[in-house]
Amino acid sequence: MNAVVLVILVPFLTAIGTALLHDRPRAESALNAVSCLGLAAFVFWLLAKVDADGPQVSMMGGYAAPYGIAFVADRLSCIMLCLSMLVASVVALYVPWTVTPLQQSHFFYPLFQVLLLGVNWSFITGDLFNLFVSYEVMLIGSYGVMMCGSSRQQVRQTLTYVAINLLGGSLFVVGLGLVYSIVGTLNMADIAVVTSRLAGPRAGMLTAASMVLLAVFALKAAAFPLFFWLPDSYPIVPLGVNGFFAGLLTKVGIYSLLRVFVMTFRQPGNELALQALLVASAFTMVVGVLGALCQWEVRRVLSWHIISQVGYMVMGIGLAADAGIATAAVAATIFYVVHHIVVKASLFLVGGIAEEISGSGRLKEMGGIALAAPGAAALFFVSALSLAGMPPFSGFLAKLVLVRTALRGAHFWVVAAAVATSFLTLLSMMKIWSYAFWGDWHDAPPRPLWRRMAAPVSVLVATTVLLGLWAQPFLRIASDAARGIVDPVDYVHAVLGPEASVEARSGVGAIASAHLAAEGRP
Amino acid sequence: MNAESPILRTVARYAIPLTMLVALRIFFQGHDLPGGGFIAGVLLAAAGAIHLLASGVGGAARVRWWRVAVLGLLVSVSNGIWPMLLGHPYMDNEFLHLGPIHLPTATFFDLGVMLIVVGTLMTIFVELSLEKR
Amino acid sequence: MELPLAIAIALLFAGGAYSILRPNFFRIVVGFGLLSNAVNLLMILCGGFRSQTAAPFVADPRRVDGLMDPIPPDIILTAIVISFAVGALFLTLCYVVYREYGTDDPEALPVREPEDWAGGPARGAGLPRYEE
To answer: What distances in angstroms separate CA A119 from CA A157, A174, A434, one per listed residue?
Structure first.
């Protein structure tokens, strides 16, 4: 279905359109919002279609599969696209109140659309090389957005962000070259077919080469030893769009890990990468939350929490090394990603509202927001409890599913780290709550702008409540998507035609379906 | 560089049209030989650079060159949409039959690339010429 | 042909890594340039490069043997453009930081900037509004 291309074509054309409307800021922001909302409607329709009819493929220029550029929308891609467009729409309705004229004159809206283009492209692409290009497009957009306004602090932190990503980009090309020299193709479906039959020294070489890509994706996801760039660079992102950064950019790394290391590389020995991720995940969770506990600015606390939350998702991917629980672990990861993107974006956006109300981002200078603006306090309260994993919100369920899977695989030490991190998360959320929201409010009324900013955010907060109370459909689609990743028969057939066959990795498919049958699922 | 140098201005009078002609040749050669929009764009920008050196930055600074680049992007991207309207994949190659000339849509893609390169390079040249020391 | 190319790649990687670790912005920029060239050469090597293979311009569609695999040059071309663009941005940023802080040593930069930093460039009261 050729319309799949629209998810990258629409942001591309909107970037051009907003650039051409550069002299008319109101029209520019209106076009930005309309395009985001329209594309959001399209991707939700696409998810319904893919769920009913199987993966949809569009070959660029009509060239056939392993050689041409494939855009593939399967369930996982569509879930990620829905999340990205949901957050983008909320951000597009939020930023008109926060963007300064100077930021607008530095091409804020076109750069935001380029960022969106890169993110959507990385979710829809069907080959490793396009994944690299989409990373770079996304990064170029993010450099531009990060520097919007050009304060000294922004330029300087962007410098380190650019340096670390230049290194990541170079490593990505190294990994691509090594993988290409071993399997002779870069199409993900084709690699899955080739590697599922790979054995002997070539399989070992591929595992070694894939470690380079593992480092690149872990860097992007900010997993344990490669997280250091994140807490300094995210706080300088302009208000509003930082919700999109926090929600989506590290999750592109998580998505790539799922897509490449669980679905694409299927040679014996690939479990090594996943086991390494499992060890890294425990450190990521604990280090992230400890970092958050000793920060005194809202944005810095929340940035460190991104790292600690990434730990949970990496843990889910790491659990997939265990063939018996692979499908359940991937399903739990996907559900966690859904929960996390919604909650993290809403926390950053509510944090922005709190800064707007009290005029400062330092916790010790804030206070009394619960008295001045109870609506904003309620939004923060729900998101914070959801992040910490309190019932009845989505965080509780996401952590429950993940921990249950880990217990099934008898990984008790990871579960211990996860539960301890959850308590510490609650502690640091209470810190923000008691410093910023409780206490006395000085007399002046809060700036009234916050109500307009809060309206779009309440959609995200409502989503986390919905995910917690009415989870069955979401869990169902997450576990269907997981089955498509662990055992990608539909994906490979959609891309390469019905003759291609992919063998299940060391009996993973058989064991996983036995488990699903035992749980009474189809 | 002295913008009033008569030697430079005389050379520029002949060099600029010549460079543009070569750019045109290379642009059309790019269909099945090395060449194409990128190189043609670089050559056109080189002609622009000669103009900046010979006649100063005054005239060129009045054009908003980044808009040329954005228009080129629009040409390249929207060129791929046309086959989609006919039910083909995005960026599929269609042919326009104008009598004996068969014009592929890839030509318009390359035209867009050329505009992007010219616009970007001229933006850089003009900004660098305007920078105060 | 593999061995000299492999040695060249190793030297470029070593030089790039050494330059990136120097406490000097200009050397870091040069280091990233060396690194991207090392990566591109590695890509050529990974594409099965032999000294006898010809560039993949197909004059006669029936005779394609002896031509190089066109995918690695394709990837390299894209990687060159991207690393050029991002490298130019990086150089510009280095220049701006040098101009603003008066130092070309990344370690000599102040850790925090208290005067214009309160959780980032927000719009709240007491923060610079960035209006000209």
So the answer is: 22, 22, 36
